[in-house]
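[Solved] Which block belongs to which protein?

Original post:
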Amino acid sequence: MKKKQLTAALLLLALAVGALVGCGKKKETITIKDGEWKNVYFNEEYIEEGMKTVRGNEAPEVTLNMEEYGFGLGIPDRWNDWEHVDELDDHLYLDYCGNALVFYIGKSETVQEFKEINEDLNASNEKKQEAYYKIFETGFPFVAITTRDAGSTEALFADSDYGNRFSSVEKVGTFGGKEYYFCYNEALPTEGYSETDLMLFQYVIDSMEELKENLVIFPAHAVDYEAQEQAAADKASAINLSSFQTADLNGNTVTQDIFKDYEVTMINIWGTGCGPCREEMPELQAAFEQLPENANIIGLCVDGEENGELAAAITEKTGVKFTQLVMSEQLLELVGQYTIYTPTTIFVDSQGNLIGEVLIGARSGVDLTEYYLENINALLK
């Protein structure tokens, strides 16, 4: 069971072109009759940029796709414009469970408990996982999208995760031998929740029609993870750091001049919520201590501005001594928009130009200190 952290989801920028099955003309609205949607568009193929929603419109800018199961859901634009978007972001969790994508609003008390445990560098992984599961046990599941083999409707309604947990289960349609269902709750839970919880519950319930219209359906297919990794590396190859300004975790101003004295600088892009990022830090420090004079290593924390204290605590706990930059708005444009996964490791020359291979994700089964040093030494003239 994959869990929320949006690092586990592939967020795609959908620009809406794409061929669709059906009569070929755009439908103005989706109608529902006897619990089944009508006038639904289905994409004939999965393409990373260019699919349309069930309504025939371009998919939202941020759409979470489950390629193995043939559907995706776009995040409503109004969520980002809401005055309480920070609270929504803190409480929104996703559960990838079997062939379903389930959206939850976490209970404030449970979310806070998880945050405190997750930020406790001495807490065990088992304790963190237990606190994380509790979010789903106590939270409010407001939407689920799921598929079943055609003709297995009874199994869906007998499933306690859908027939019992959601007040409405609607059949979207049948495509590629699969039946697609949109499950949701329309009524607020009444006991044991704070005013903030109830406000968030009501807001996502009020977004239900937009969520329905943001559904994307396409042929299910096996995911080529190697190809995804290569695509992420190709995307990151657009990074250019020849001119920028940001700060480090100590508040010092840093510019592209940080590169000028080194033939090669390795930049490790990481986040405070990324377990593999934390785990490799001692080996990164070991590589830093063995660097030749004309090479350097720095870190770039993607959430360093908002979680600076936690980032500093992590680096102290893991013994990291090399410079850690924060993702300023400028770096978000120069780096963040091209970085899909953490950790991502890139290499630049003395001018801040990208050189060498982009390394996506954490490596297992290898000596990471040796691995990073080999990549650095290969780029030295």
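(Second protein starts here: sequence line, then its structure tokens.)
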Amino acid sequence: MDQEAKDVLSRRLRRRRGMAGPVARIDLDALRHNLSRAREAAPGCRVMAVVKANAYGHGAVEAARALSEADALAVARVEEGVVLRRAGITSRIVVLEGPVAAAELPLALAGDLELVVHHASQIPWLAPALERASRGLRCWIKVDTGMNRLGFRPEEADAAATVLRAIPGVVLCGVMTHLASADLRDDPTTARQLGRFRPLAETLAPEQSLANSAGILGWPASHGDWVRPGIMLYGASPFADESADALGLRPVMTLRTRLIAVKSCRAGETVGYGGTWRCPEDMPIGVAAIGYGDGYPRHAAAGTPVLVTGQRAALAGRVSMDMITIDLRTVPGARTGDPVVLWGDGLPVEEVATAADTISYELFCRLTGRVKFRYEAARPSGAD
């Protein structure tokens, strides 16, 4: 084989490898649209766009660049903020869990990160670090109004704020809480949390932040000075009874792969591990290149929807590490190489999550390094 033939074969193999494996297409224009939707839903509020957990699995650096018009970004951990700073992100960055050890304070100060203080054990770390620092430290105090996760109890918050204000270099810029049940519009928990937070917050710090995505879209009384959109930015609904489309959101991630085989199976034959799915008739079965090794949920049941060449089909049998099997009776003309959409454009992630007995958040966050990410935008986005 001469060199030209080898080059042609190599290009063909690269194309085939690129086609076969799963790809997550990230629509950055949709991300910006959803940020605008958050602003529309909470007029007059500043927006702290949440990009924790690698921007809910979408890519934190790329998402942060696309969200440069947000008033601030929020991450869960100091290391996440450091990654963004090293990538050239200059937006305000708030660390929602604050420091987990004294050793993180120099990193936070060097990166000009804002820290949420939620527990008395964090306070003694601040003064020693600030004595050696060339800049001050903006802090938020978190109050637990009923979720019983992070935050000072209401009766402890005033004393904690007093101690924080007394530390040279600390600027107590805001107070926040987190809504436990805002996705349940008839649940009285949110109203109780608001009732506990409002009187206390007015005395603690100049700015208030309560609303997550569900609060932004469903509880106007929770908006305060800052809202913190998370899942809605990525085009998924925070409500079980209302779709993202109905809320004016656009899907950001479309997860795709391709059929790598189409088989003709006979009535009564079983498909996949354990033989849990039996062909009700002579029928085509497709094999697509994605599995739990890529982060697709192993517990997705037979019947979980997919799109094959844009037409709805359903899983048949158990999810394997590298493959899924698909009932192709609704797509009788399907062929090897045809595109398969797991969620995104044309197939809401919430529908797949329901079929897999999970939530959209988990589906986004669990994708593994085997999935290739492609970022698309009509206009380029800068570092900030």
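Accepted answer:
You had them paired correctly. Confirming on the second one: The two ends are 51 Å apart (CA to CA).
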